[in-house]
Amino acid sequence: MPQTLTRRLPVTDDPDTEGFWQAAAEGRLKIRQCRSCSTYVHLPRNHCPKCHAPETVWHEVSSRGTLYSFCIAEQQIDPAFPTPYTAVLVELEDAPGVRLIGHLPGRHDLTIGMQMVIAFDKLGDDVTLPQWHPAQTDRTVL
To answer: Phi and psi dihedrals of 22, rounded to 5?
Structure first.
């Protein structure tokens, strides 16, 4: 009997990242921001690494960005991710220095610096995963 592959899903009820996943479920992108100095804080935490203020809040940002780097995987490592696939690293348009990763099935003709947008992939009742794709193939919710 063939083995059923289960994709690993993120933990969506972690106190440090719960706001990110809740926003994604609503089709929005949120990043932590310091209340004191307005620095974006990613990876999410409750204190600012710049001014050390003890409070950060979830702040909605644009779902657009610029392709910072990418890699096409040709050799399969995890059975849940068949090759080839393209891993992308995207810098957020209105949160400079904040970069998020994404997964595109297959090989893609990408160029560093190209515009990217997020589509929100619903992976079940509890998980919506933001995924990047080139802006010219604009999608919103899959």
So the answer is: -65, -45
**Are 137 and 106 within 8 A, CB to CB?**
no
pTM equals 0.86
Whether 1 has a pLDDT exceeding 90, the answer reads no
Continuous segment of H or E residues that includes residue 87 = strand 85-92
Task: Give me the residues paired with residue 58 across strands.
Answer: 32
Question: For 37, phi and psi rounded to 5 degrees?
Answer: -115, 0
For 45, phi and psi rounded to 5 degrees? -155, 165
Phi, psi of 58 (to 5 degrees): -75, 130
Burial class (CB in 10 A: 0-12, 13-18, 19+), 10: middle
Q: Which is nearest to 71 in space by CA: 32, 103, 47? A: 103
Segments making up each domain of the chain, as ranges: 13-61, 63-142
Closest CA to 25 of 139, 117, 120, 140: 120
Q: Is 6 helix (H, G, I), strand (E, B) or coil?
A: coil
**Given a cut of 50, is residue 37 above it in pLDDT?**
yes
